[in-house]
Design goal:
By secondary structure, this protein is mainly β. It is 13% helix and 51% strand. The longest helix is centred in the first third of the chain and has 16 residues. Keywords: Signal.
């Protein structure tokens, strides 16, 4: 199901792009944060998350595949908020969904965060998806069902 939407939605391998902050003065914590957020949005735009998910209580069954493509990602003015357009394909679901998601940082690691986010036609989801070194891993919850998700991230330039 959509447990990884979050993920997809995104969102987000640990920024491996080159957006530099050009300033005449020494960089401040604020400009470093702004540059990091811009690199992340650029990295996520066009990125595909491909992997698997589990369902709690059914871990002994074959892993289910999932794939999400973040068509676009833009940093919003609100702190930690990003606007994403995500293409989701799994089971009978095949569509693009606009989402506004929070991405928090644990040191240099982005974590896509969803708390009871309603996705039209799909339901309400919560999740945490950590992005690191071209991979994602996390947890998802959809009503009474939940599980884990994990896989690799292919940036747009590599597709």
């Amino acid at each position: 199901m959509i447990r990884s939407i979050v993920l997809v939605f995104a969102c987000i391998t640990m920024l491996v792009s080159d957006v530099s902050v050009a300033t005449a003065q020494a960089p401040t914590e604020s400009t470093d944060k702004d540059a990091r957020e811009l690199r992340l949005a650029k990295y996520l735009s066009g990125a595909t998350f491909t992997g698997h998910f589990t369902v709690d209580g059914k871990e002994d069954r074959a892993l289910k595949p999932e794939s999400y493509t973040i068509k676009s990602c833009e940093k919003l003015p609100e702190p930690d908020m990003y606007s994403m357009k995500v293409a989701i394909k799994y089971g009978d679901t095949d569509g693009e969904f606009p989402m506004q998601l929070k991405i928090l940082w644990s040191d240099r690691t982005p974590v896509i965060t969803m708390d009871s986010v309603w996705i039209p036609g799909l339901g309400t989801f919560s999740s945490r998806v950590l992005i690191h070194d071209g991979r994602y891993a996390g947890t998802w919850q959809h009503d009474a069902k939940g599980g884990h998700l994990f896989g690799k991230i292919t940036p747009a330039k590599e597709q």
